[in-house]
Amino acid sequence: MYYVNKEQIEIRLAYLSIVSETLRLLRDKSSVNDLVDRFALERAIHVAAECVTDIGSYMIDGFVMRDAASYEDIVDILYGENVFTAQLNELLSSLVKLRKPLVQSYYHLLDIDLTSLSLQLPEGLDLFKDAIVKYLDSELS
Predict the structure, then answer these.
(1) Catalytic residue list contains 43
(2) What own/partner pairs with CB < 8 Å and gap ≥ 24 does 70-76 have?
(3) Cβ(121)–Cβ(20) under 8 Å?
């Protein structure tokens, strides 16, 4: 029997919905190059990466999947366990690769184009959320 911390996963999934909605609002604004909007976009992408990796860590620990060697590995492990599709894996891998620059090299971020990722991310986060819930339901019932 697995011990999966569903409570912590659900808390993060709920917050991920807020992040997804924030990204939608920013996407719909015409002034995404505004400094405040840029900071909001960076923060939303950073928190999305944290949510995905936190949820992934809870899933890996709870279902006793192989140990992750990096943040990127968390996404690869979930994909390898058929939690989500290859297309979603590609998007989430791109997201998680931005975690380090967002946390450690934030002063260089104005040089990084976040637009492409931010356009795909709201729907991708919704798909991730659905995939996690579906996986939990199928494995824990």
Answers:
(1) no
(2) 71/96, 71/99, 71/100, 72/96, 72/97
(3) yes
Catalytic: which of 24, 27, 38, 99?
99
**What does the DSSP assignment read for 64-110?**
TPPPPSSHHHHHHHHHHTTSS-HHHHHHHHHHHHTHHHHHH-GGGGG
The tokens for 52 are 């995905």
**pTM of the predicted protein model:** 0.94
> What average pLDDT does the chain have?
93
CA of residue 129 relative to chain centroid, distance: 9
pLDDT digits (tens, 9 = 90+) for 53-83: 999 999 999 999 999 999 999 999 999 999 9
Residue 131, token pair as written in the block: 């995939």
41, 114 contact by CB (below 8 A): yes
